[in-house]
Design goal:
Length: 284
């Protein structure tokens, strides 16, 4: 296995995947961005272009640098079109079956030396690795949203992850300018083991009429000195993603303190998923 990663593949061109592609390209890597269709991959690339244009407008980046970053990202129609890559990271929805399907495809098409990684925010890395024929070259690499802004990345080692894979992934995260924390392979890892109970409890507080959404968030911002209230943050993350993580915590840890709020379930059932649908705990 090559120690240095030069070519990065990102599968899933949504907000998280596009953000990972952007930081990879800004670090000088050649990036292939794939989704379920060429149109979705191109849409993700357009999102990157728009975000970089904002950086140019603010004087944080030159127009030439923007073009250089975009030139390093290639939108491709499917996993089958990735070609030779050194590391492929899936950043699709928090759904075990979907992730396993994507990882099996990556295992087939990626070269033998390539590392496979998952941006999962809660699902076992060991379980995901078992869907491939290279569990020793599999690792968890959980970025924070929005990826270009947030400095943290959680690295999670599966049961079979090799030392060589671990060191190569750490070196990549450092090259991407991220601060690294290491988590055991447990449901929710570190960040979401702490964050999701907070968001879920805020949803319970709203459900029980303890306070309005605005007052609950104001309490967190001014009473706890959080930069964003938990309900606002849930809308940014996506209520469907929050619910999926809460369900993993509840199911895998078997403790009722992780049971998802009925209001969170109801909003997801209604299609009120947060900012991406224009309605969540707030209207946008």
């Amino acid at each position: 296995m090559n120690a240095e990663i030069r070519t990065l593949a990102v599968i899933g061109a949504g907000q998280m995947g596009a953000g990972i592609a952007q930081v990879g390209a800004q670090a000088g890597l050649a990036v292939r961005l794939a989704d379920a269709s060429a149109d979705l991959a191109e849409k993700g690339l357009e999102g990157v272009a728009k975000g970089l244009a904002g950086q140019v407008d603010k004087g944080r980046m030159t127009a030439a640098d923007r073009e250089a970053v975009l030139h390093r990202i290639q939108a491709v129609a499917s996993v089958r079109d990735l070609g030779r890559v050194d590391l492929a990271i899936e950043a699709v929805s928090e759904n075990l079956g979907l992730k396993q399907q994507i990882l099996r495809e990556l295992d087939e098409v990626c070269p033998a030396h390539a590392i496979l990684a998952s941006n999962t925010s809660s699902i076992s890395i060991t379980v995901l690795a078992a869907s491939t024929r290279r569990p020793d070259r599999f690792v968890g690499m959980h970025f924070m949203n929005p990826v270009p802004v947030m400095k943290l990345v959680e690295l999670i080692r599966g049961l079979a992850t090799s030392d060589e894979t671990w060191q190569a992934t750490r070196a990549l995260a450092t090259r991407l300018g991220k601060t690294i924390i290491e988590s055991r392979d447990v449901p929710g890892f570190i960040v979401n083991r702490i964050l999701m109970p907070l968001i879920n409890e805020a949803a319970f507080a709203l459900y029980e009429g303890i306070g309005s959404a605005e007052d609950i968030d104001q309490a967190a911002r001014l009473g706890l000195n959080h930069p964003m209230g938990p309900l606002q943050l849930a809308d940014l993350i996506g209520l469907d993603t929050c619910l999926a993580i809460c369900e993993v915590l509840h199911r895998e840890l078997g403790d009722d303190k992780y049971r998802p709020s009925p209001l969170l379930r109801q909003y997801v059932a209604a299609g009120w998923l947060g900012r991406k649908t224009g309605r969540g705990f707030y209207q946008y």
